[in-house]
Specification:
With about 160 residues, the protein is an alpha/beta fold. The protein has one domain: Flavodoxin domain (Rossmann fold, 3-Layer(aba) Sandwich), CATH 3.40.50. The protein contains 4 helices and 7 strands; from the N terminus they run αββαβαββββα. Strand 3, helix 3 and strand 4 form a beta-alpha-beta unit. The chain is globular, with a radius of gyration of 16 Å. The two termini are about 20 Å apart.
Length: about 160
């Protein structure tokens, strides 16, 4: 199993323009990783009750995958995490992420994770909240299990 992470600077991409086929190296790397992925985890901060523009713009680049044999997220398991300074925004953002995954033909993991960042949740890489840590573990296990099973079925 190989894991790649795209966050922060890796997601600073030009505003997606469907009429412009020019792609930056960052955009090419993101789309290539998504094409090769059997499982995906999307995490987004909430901005005004929705997905941040940075994340949404990166997701828009999946339009480059529309003609692939596995178009968009087809046949891929996708876990979703929404972070917000309160439960209401986290809930609406999680719902938005799950709708995007569905519209891109992905298989939403049953466990979606909401993180209320109004309090300190992480110290470095350590999760300080056992409920959130458990929920993330469940979601990751669901994504990995589905991805492995899908890969096995495709190999038959």
């Amino acid at each position: 199993m190989r894991v790649q992470m795209f966050g922060g600077e890796a997601l600073i991409l030009p505003l997606y323009d469907p009429s412009d086929v020019t792609r930056t190296e960052r955009a090419k790397a993101l789309i290539q990783a998504l094409r090769e992925a059997d499982g995906i985890i999307l995490s987004a901060p909430a901005y005004h009750g929705g997905i941040s523009g940075l994340i949404k713009n990166a997701i828009d680049y999946t339009e480059d995958m529309k003609g692939d044999d596995r178009a968009y997220f087809d046949g891929r398991s996708v876990g979703t995490i929404a972070c917000a300074g309160g439960w209401q925004a986290a809930g609406t953002t999680l719902g938005s992420l799950r709708s995007v995954v569905h519209s891109l033909r992905g298989w939403n993991a049953p466990m979606g994770v909401m993180i209320n960042t109004a309090r300190k949740i992480f110290a470095g890489e350590q999760c300080l909240d056992s409920d959130i840590e458990r929920n993330i573990s469940i979601m990751v296990e669901q994504v990995v299990s589905f991805a492995r099973n899908s890969a096995l079925l495709r190999a038959l």
